[in-house]
Design goal:
3 domains, alpha+beta, 6-stranded antiparallel sheet, 14% strand, Glutamine Phosphoribosylpyrophosphate, subunit 1, domain 1, Rossmann fold
Length: 667
Amino acid sequence: MCGIAGMIDLSGQKRPVSRTVLEAMAESIIHRGPDEDGFLELPGIGFASRRLSIIGLADGRQPIRNEDGSVHVVFNGELFDYPEVKAKLESRGHRFRTHCDTELIPHLWEEYQAGFWEQVKGQFALALFDEKRQRVVLGRDRFGICPLYWTRQDNWLLFASEIKALLASGLVEARPDLQGINHLFTFFAIPGPTTCFEGIQLLPPGRCIEVQLGASGASAQVRESAYWRLEFAEQGKEDNRDPKILADEFNDLLVHAVEKRLRADVPVVSYLSGGVDSSTVVAIASHLRKEPIPSFTIQIKAPTLDETSEAGIVARHLGTTPIVVPVGAEEVLGAYPELIRAAEAPVVDTSCAALMLLAREVHHRGYKVALTGEGADEWLAGYPWHKVNRVLSWLDVFGLPISQWLRRSLVKLSGTPTFPWEQVKRVQRAVGGHNGWLDIYGLMSLSKLRFFSPHLRELALNHVVYEDMGLEIERAKNWHPLNRELLLSARIHLSGLLLNAKGDRVAMHSSVETRYPFLDEEVSAFLARVTPRVKLRGLRDKYLLRLVAQRWLPPEIAWRRKAMFRAPFDSFHLDVAPAFVDQLLSEESIQRTGYFNYSAVAHWRQAFKSLRAGSLKRTSIEMGLVAVLSTQLWHHTFIEGALADLPSLAGINSWSTVRRSLSAVAG
């Protein structure tokens, strides 16, 4: 993994690119690539790279070029089929000068052109400049593992792995985008393309941007398009073979996916939670290595959330001793300012802080690469709301939406305000009918009605954020309803939360690359075509994976019920909390940002404690309060550093000064 950034003159004048600007952009993301830097400076084109060396340690400095130096590439990520693709290209006459997978890209571009994106597989964000064709292409991997942000300013197109680099250019002003906050309070994440920064977009998964530079002073043409989209088999045409046969094929694909992700010139470790997903990955990796792979486990210091006993069962079974990182409410709360700096957005899921601390420990132990189990829940219906939706849907007889009436009635009976029915229907149309994800997102969205200021509430009531997702839901009308749920799972939850604030951003903040065997292209394609009956079998989630897992793990792990990995939501409501909590939630700070209703925030900070622990209402209010606090913290960090006695990046031009300041705070 690395960090990339750059700028492209769209005016057609080929204005000179400032080396100082490129260096500032690169310095702001040095944590993504502490090993070396590299720059490309041509008339109207500038690229920057910060490298985390994992493959081709000695000769992978970027930008990398083709034989005649006409195609230039900066690249963040890994192409796991590098040896096979390199051999294929060499057989066609291409010559390689390095041992790094980045060098595949200019040669694949030369060889395939229009078919280029079909050949690039793995986890990546890249920028390529073809001098002969005067064309720049930017792109992001199919599932959204590696981030790529972009903006247009003063007839420049700027791009970067992180928003910090765009701000460091000096061409981009940090201003809030209220629709980004609306997205956060719907999805408890920022799946893109909207971000919380006005004018800055996150390129969605499976999409690319092509910039055709103009001739003789003409303006450049910029075109964004999808080169890939998630597709499921039509209902009734899924692969319906015997589950044992499907499990055999799935097992082989998963073993190959893990094998490819063990390829590195540095040691590879793994996260181990004790759940079936990560445990299967660790077991397969240890089998392939013929020795236990080093593993890292989070211990949430709350009895109902601690999974170390299950992780211990797996560790003893495999003969390994996991490195355990204890994380409690105090650690979560103390880490949140750093988490917001890393994520560049408000973060609602408190377990993101725990994963940031886990990645820090991986780095501290001298490792750069960790395997993890994300993706299994998304492809195989692992979340409890899939089951809830299935049970409630049994009430819908004779075409009557009884289950929806019941949901809405329960919300009203709890004394919670509800959204206008017209907006509810717009949401359902945007996702192709009621969807299990609407239950959990609806729980989060209630916070808009509780906490938003009048202005922000009006904006939320007049805009349906699902319509921003580019779901193209018409293509899904012939899919099984469960697969329509999995489409939202992949497009919003996976790319927006698990691979972003819970994945790349917290891992690369500590210079750690995370790899995802369940997000292998062949694994995904296989699971997209198998029958939903082996995904959610009755109320048994991830049934097909469990058939595979029982070959590798003790039965109590292979068939263990899904446990949601999370840290306590009430971390922000400790009796003795850091001063910044009250500062950010003070009447002055709330009024200064203008996002929230202070009276409502103050009321629910007190009232939630009297609500029954574990109730949906209390959970909804806790999530909402975390979102309020983290939004205030984000605003302080990036927009206006006047809300609390905390470091701020707002208005900072010298990133070396920022780094020294943050190091002093950490020390």
